[in-house]
Amino acid sequence: MSLSNARALIDRFKRLKTLVIGDLMLDHYIWGTVSRISPEAPVPVVQMSRETEMPGGAGNVAVNMAALGAEVYVVGLLGEDAAADRLVSLFQRGPIHTESTVRTPERPTIVKTRIVAQHQQVVRVDREIGGELSNHLRDQIWAHVERILPEVQAVVLSDYAKGVVTSSLVHRLIPLAHKLRIPVAVDPKVENFHLYKHVTCVTPNIQEAMESGGVRHLRGEEDVEKLGQQLLNKIDADSILITRGEYGMSLFERKKPVFHIPTRAREVFDVTGAGDTVISTMALALASGASLRQAAELSNYAAGIVVGKLGTASVTGPELLKAVSNNHG
Fold this sequence. Notes:
Blueprint: H1 3-13, E1 17-22, E2 24-37, E3 44-57, H2 58-67, E4 71-75, E5 77-79, H3 82-92, E6 96-97, E7 102-104, E8 110-117, E9 120-127, H4 135-148, E10 154-158, H5 167-180, E11 184-187, E12 201-202, H6 206-213, H7 221-235, E13 239-243, E14 249-253, E15 259-261, H8 274-287, H9 292-306, H10 317-328
Parallel strand pairs: 1-4, 1-10, 2-8, 4-6, 5-7, 10-11, 11-12
Antiparallel strand pairs: 2-3, 8-9, 13-14, 14-15
Helix pairs in contact: 1-10, 2-8, 6-7, 8-9, 9-10
């Protein structure tokens, strides 16, 4: 990708409206230190120093897209509780539109509390109610999607298998998005992989790809290529972008040879949320007119930046352009 192409694409991000559909969560962190073991049980005693909160799940995708300059709408489910109020407040800093979230007393807002001591996660506590959503809630979610879709230029499905992304939603969404010529990118959940037929791009990491393809071991590049082609054929998508950590990414397209992209990361501090950065950049680049290969390359630059940051992080447009510029030296 040339620097001028990258600059033009990134500049277009600021003129895009995008829709993120998926499972919204509040990530709650308790930070502290450990100096002793509890006398009550063989567990560490964490002396808390501070607490932080940020959008998690599909919410982190929305945050990433907003950081890159896009106007973002989110469709998902929230409880009628204080956690939902705090999450909406965090979104509004984006700014991210939250009027299309569905509030319900049927289940609480999903909250994941992580207790971290000396940068090491000690334990995670999840607050959620699983299972399928009621027909009433699913109808409300679809009504918001159907209303917003004609106004946006890109859609991301951020699927954590918590109930928002269903077969009926996907089956109605994809034909409508095709009709409107809107790219649909999917951050997949393994158990739902079969749902994503005919989408523009699916972005599994290598472990998710192996589980989705029923593969236990990969002996080399040839096995990776077989796996990617198998997944592409399985859902008849336009593309599959497999993220492979230190080995970069591999893009599979219909009737084209595999495109391997070496990693751009210079130092890796934390891979948390890197997948959200990849799919956010991929979707925005496609909506800006990039080819699948150009979008994947730009996503790779974005991933290289975010893994060099500690904790769940995002990338801005200027940061992304600087990374491309540095590579062209």
